[in-house]
Amino acid sequence: MDAASFTMDYTRWAARYDIFYEAAPEGELEFYLNAIGRDGGSVLELGVGTGRIAIPAAMMGRDVTGVDLSRPMLECLRQKIGDVSMAGNLELVESDISEFELQKRDFDLVIIPAHTLALITDASRQVAALKRCAMHMAPDAVLIFNLFNPSDDLINDDSGERFLLGVVVDEDREVRHVLSGDNDFDTETQTNHCVQTIESFDRHGDLIDREELNVVFRYLHHDDVLEMLDQAGLELVEFFGDFDGTPFDDDCEEMIYICRLE
Ligand SMILES: C[S@@+](CC[C@H](N)C(=O)[O-])C[C@H]1O[C@@H](n2cnc3c(N)ncnc32)[C@H](O)[C@@H]1O
After folding, report:
1. How far apart are CA 84 and CA 72, in angstroms?
2. pLDDT, tens digit, for every residue of 36-79?
3. 29 lines ligand 1 (CB under 6 A)
4. The listed CATH number (1.20.1070, 1.10.3210, 2.20.25, 1.10.10) that belongs to domain 152-217
């Protein structure tokens, strides 16, 4: 594989993102919406995407600011809010999350859902994104983010087998989407070049569409995250391995961080 040419095409991703996120990890959306409901106040979301979390948060009456560098993703979000009634405000900022700077510096809750910190493929820029979080937090604010756990089994699996991400049924169009992935981990650079495939079948079971989409992650081990939090002036207050609040252990698929300013 030519790593240099293996990049994410957000225009193609934007058109299919919501299908993939129908198959998001169980409990993730509820976990973030519960935090938003519980912790209250203003919300800053880094990597807001198509508004999966930001739109319901604004509908709940929260004032939300979403930062994202992808114009196609933000366009998708804007189209969705055309006919939605929101009790709160939703402000969108087109910027890199490791560089953005807002006038408001006292958000009550900052979130980086859906492994987005790992989509930054450079360690120093991952730290910079955490520093940007700290810079925009009120003194008693909370930062919540989740990453996938790069367990030994996962990163050393060289079976080359495609794995099932999920099956999403579009009842209206009578289409079934089968989502799968093919990982290629490089443990030297801590990167994963993943090809995610979406195969769409009509009601007769005939294949009507097939798309391959690239995703590049720079994965982080828990110790890396602790080091980065320290560099960003943040401290870990809770650490889960599942969105139901299960404490982390090596077998968990997720690493879920709840942090405050030091
Ligand atoms: C996995 S999606 C998550 C979207 C949304 N938070 C959710 O949970 O549905 C990641 C989003 O982060 C954005 N993104 C990735 N790297 C970024 C960066 N360096 N700066 C800003 N946005 C970035 C992508 O454009 C994409 O919309």
Report:
1. 19
2. 998 679 999 999 999 999 999 999 999 999 999 999 999 999 99
3. no
4. 2.20.25
